Amino acid sequence: MIRFTDKGLYCPAGNFYIDPWQPVERAVITHAHSDHARAGSASYLCHHLTLPLLQLRLGNNHYQSVGWNEPVFINGVRLSLHPAGHIIGSSQVRLEHNGEVWVFSGDYKTEHDGLSGAFEPVRCHTFITESTFGLPIYTWKPQQVIYDDISNWIRNNQSHQKTSVLIAYSLGKAQRILEAVSAVTGNIYAHGAVYNVHETLQQAGIPLPDIRRVTPETPREQLKGSVVIAPPGAAESPWMKKFTPYAVGVCSGWMQVRGHARRSNVDAGFALSDHADWPGLLQAINATGAQKVFVTHGFQSALSRYLNEQGLEAAEVKTEYGNDEEITELKEENGIISEQAPETT
Amino acid sequence: MSSSTEISLTTNGFTGFASLVQVLGTSTGTNEKTDALSYYFTHAADEDKVWVIAIFSGRRPKRVVNSTLLQNWCAEITGLPVWLFEECYHTVGDLGETIALLLPEPDIQGQQKSLSWYIDALIRLSKAEEPEKKQFITDTWRHLNREERFVFNKLITGGFRIGVSQKVMVNALSKTVQMDAPVIAHRISGNWDPGTTKFSELLNNEGAAADHSKPYPFYLAYALDKEPAALGDPQEWQAEWKWDGIRGQIIKRNRQLFVWSRGEELMTDKFPEYQVLENLLPDGTVLDGEILPGRGDTPLPFSVLQTRIGRKNVSKKQLQEAPVVFYAYDLLEYDGVDIRDQPLETRRKLLEQIVNDLSASGRAIPVFISPVISFKTWEALAAIRERSRELGAEGLMLKRIQSAYQVGRKIGDWWKWKMDALTIDAVMVYAQKGHGRRSNLYTDYTFAVQDGDKLVTFTKAYSGLTDKEFAQVDAFVKRNSLEKFGPVRTVKPELVFEIAFEGIAASNRHKSGVALRFPRISRWRKDKTPGEINTLADLKQLLDVYGK
Questions:
Q1: A217 touches chain B (CB under 8 A)
Q2: Does A259 touch chain B (CB under 8 A)?
Q3: What is B422-546's CATH topology?
Q4: Does A206 touch chain B (CB under 8 A)?
Q5: Residues A227 and A307 in one domain
Q6: Residues A255 and A308 in one domain
């Protein structure tokens, strides 16, 4: 049903691609992160909530959007989207043709974050899963525990008259951590890249607390003790000077490992991820009932070997999705930051 | 800067120690680390404080179980296959942390115990049979949380590596107990048993008497970062060769001889050559100098010493092939009196007198005076420095003639003026994930030079790139792996780097036949293609010139 080609995941029967990394005629998009939603295709199909984000990031194109569990037929292939729980609008893609069912997970997480829609297990014969955190060392703490850590960290910074700069991916993590931040303060600022996404989502009707954009005019006085949300690339830029004295905390699944947290040279690391952890991956794979599993981007060799040993037919697949989430984040955010440069310096 | 207390920081019991380690491991500034330690030293229980001092100065309890057992027990509890455990270990880069991350959530709420309680238990365990060890360790795992388990595992496996230097700890103690830092540095050096020493004894004037082995904190020089002319009048300065050995103190007190390395390791037994000094040196003498491989007064390359340094017992053959001498350049204690406050000039005269007396004994003495180089102008000295490598030195030391012997790395009176490193351009052929701070990132590389149409590996290098460059090379490795051997990846020979090193010697451990001293990446030669790298013949030529 799906072939792995050098342009991306291709469905020959329906003649369309899912999350292609090269321009194609017809692209189905799981979610709006840049390694999955790329520019240049002639038409795009995505979830309603992904649509405004694609418009923001890819500009005007031929778009079609659908809701979850609303099947569309493309050349006889029955296609439907199902919540993936990764970020707002993120979807799994279910394909059915001649009685055979395949599901591509896109990126997903199994813990419900209250924003992205709860991950829905979808029964299928063949499941294509991501494996960003496909090692058992990646077993997340419950999100409330991490939110509490973040809240306490902010309070501690406030008691030292420091601004808390939280580094979070501008789409997804930045909105998610607002819950932890709002528990402490309403004095929230954002980098332009974060603010743009925030504004787009608010306009699309997502209930998010109000935040303010950091501009050259923002008075330093107001920033004291505030929380500033910024994308990964911003942490090392002169843009940060304005917040002195400040402390930097990074919210990323990679912070699970101390060495990784120390290498990023920040004051605090919070292992908060929008990807499934090891138990989440196994639970999701199990729930599909699939006999055949293809494992994409991440620790694909470890996860597929483990699944094989568990009696499933599993194989690794090379894709161009998030080879290393951090690097993709960096690339993308650097792009955005350079656009913003005149305004932020 | 007075209100430095972390509100989330508890100092109580083992949890308190775990959160101290957590804060020290994540804080980026020296001030924060000092504050956290000082807060701990103010509030924690005395028995725990003594152990914290001990642990952060490298005195951990003897290891009671090996890594394989820990790994097996963890695999047994989690039911993970061994290969997957190893995959995790390669990604985390630290066994104690890997286990802490893999174990299931704690299921017993135990009574809070103290740091010293756990250490005492571990010490007692050293005599126990394996089942008893397993019982205690796996039980402990079951009632500690993730952060506490990590710390507990590190107590067993050793090496906290959380960026706390001796200096930071000494400053924190000094702040807490209101004593001068150099005094504290001296107190906590040397041989003391954290199991029997009380905090008050360690840091009290009365308690300090007993230990005769205690070395002085070393005075360390900064690298000269300007033209020597900026140091002013050459007449105020003394120049010596900078030797490439192990910095050490030889101590003779109470008719006993002690040899300490700069890493605060007691190494007396490793250098039987020095035993003759036990009878010849006067009591109350402390020499500072360089432990060097050498025959007579001719130094040999450092690599000669490396062949015997790791051994517990030195063999007769090694004593013959890698003899050790001591190049003395300072005297810290004379006739039982601490003379570090005296000017270098005075100390040097007394040192010369002591070494001359040794020679007058008529025996073969392994101690030589590191000669003073006389010079009139900085230009003349620069010319002399060019001869460093011929003499087996790394460059020059510049010391102010009137300088006192200070504590730790201090700017101003002592400088090292090293030769520029040797360099060679090479291509990266293997990559391996780093450890600790660089886990999950390919940062350990093996390099090769050309030999006809073949590539010959000749060195590994771990440092010298910025974090950003490491991220770029890491991305390259992930996309250009040719083969995988366990944790090692063979990569497309495409990236060219300039490798800098301090010395070169013949070796049969490497295919190339050479071994480098202190190899590191000096820069990424993005301007060069693999066709333009150096050849094996170039390396051999360096060996001929510098490798004697």
A1: no
A2: yes
A3: OB fold (Dihydrolipoamide Acetyltransferase, E2P) (2.40.50)
A4: no
A5: no
A6: no
CA distances from A44 to A19, A31, A207, B151, B346 (A): 10, 11, 26, 51, 84
Q: Which residues form the domain of A174?
A: 143-272
pLDDT surpasses 70 at A246: yes
Tell me, yes or no, whether A305 and A193 share the same domain. no
Nearest to B91 among A135, A156, A330 (CB): A135
Q: What is the pLDDT of residue B318?
A: 83
Size of interface A-B (CB pairs under 8 A): 90
pLDDT recorded at residue A203? 93
| Closest-CA residue of chain A to B145 | A141
Would you state the pLDDT for residue A325?
39
**Partner-chain contact B27 A267, CB within 8 Å:** yes
Domain boundaries, given as residue ranges, for chain B: 13-60+163-208, 67-157, 219-414, 422-546
Q: Which residue among A272, A305, A337 closes a domain?
A: A272
Asked if residues B396 and B239 have their Cβ atoms less than 8 Å apart, the reply is: yes
Closest CA relative to residue A134, chosen from A169, A109, A101:
A109
Regarding whether A316 and A266 lie in a shared domain, the answer is no
Q: How many domains does chain A have?
A: 2
Q: Are residues A156 and A242 in the same domain?
A: yes
Tokens 């090996």 belong to residue = B66
Q: Does A10 touch chain B (CB under 8 A)?
A: no
**Binary contact (A323, B80; C-beta < 8 A):** no
CB B94 to CB A258 under 8 A?
Answer: yes
Q: What residues of B are in contact with residue A311 (Cβ under 8 Å)?
A: none
Chain B: give the shortest CA distance to residue A319, in Å.
11
Residue A313 parent element (H or E): strand A313-316
Domain match, A127 and A198 both: no
Looking at residue A337, its pLDDT comes to 31
Write the residue in A136, A269, A330 that is nearest to B80 by C-beta.
Answer: A136
Q: Which of A257, A258, A323 sits opposite B478 (nearest CB)?
A: A323
Residue in B closest to A297 by C-alpha: B478
Share in percent of chain A as helix, strand, coil (round to 5) = 30, 25, 45
| Average pLDDT over every residue of A210-239 | 89
Report, as ranges of residue numbers, the positions in chain B whose pLDDT lies below 70: 1-9, 28, 110, 161-163, 190, 205-211, 264, 310-312, 435-440, 486, 548
pLDDT tens per residue, range A165-220 = 999 999 999 999 999 999 999 999 999 999 999 999 999 999 999 999 999 889 98
Is A155 within 8 Å of B7 when comparing Cβ atoms? yes
Burial B245-265 (b: 16+ CB within 10 A, else e): bbebbbbbbeeebbbbbbebe
Report, as an integer, the average pLDDT of A145-152. Answer: 94
Is A127 contained in some domain? yes
Of B83, B150, B438, the CB nearest to A259: B438
Please provide the DSSP assignment of B425-485 as one string: EEEEEEEEE--GGGTTSEEEEEEEEEETTEEEEEEEE---S-HHHHHHHHHHHHHSEEEEE
Supply the pLDDT for residue B438: 55
**DSSP 8-state class, residue A63:** E
Report residue A138 as tokens.
């990646």
- Phi, psi (5° rounding) for residue B250? -105, 125
pLDDT at A285: 97
3-state helix, strand, coil split of chain B in percent (to 5) is 40, 25, 35
Is residue A183 less than 8 Å (CB to CB) from chain B?
Answer: no
Q: Do B78 and A262 touch (CB under 8 A)?
A: no
Q: Point out the residues of B that are catalytic.
A: 242
Question: From the CB of residue A196, how many other CB atoms can be counted at a distance below 10 Å?
Answer: 19
- Residues A15 and A113 both lie in one domain: yes
Distance from CA of B494 to the nearest CA of A (A): 20
Which superfamily is assigned to B219-414 in CATH? DNA ligase/mRNA capping enzyme (3.30.470.30)
A160 pLDDT tier (thresholds 50, 70, 90): confident
The CATH code of the domain that includes A104 is 3.60.15.10
- Using pLDDT thresholds of 50, 70 and 90, give the confidence band for residue A323: very low
Per cent of chain B over pLDDT 70 is: 93
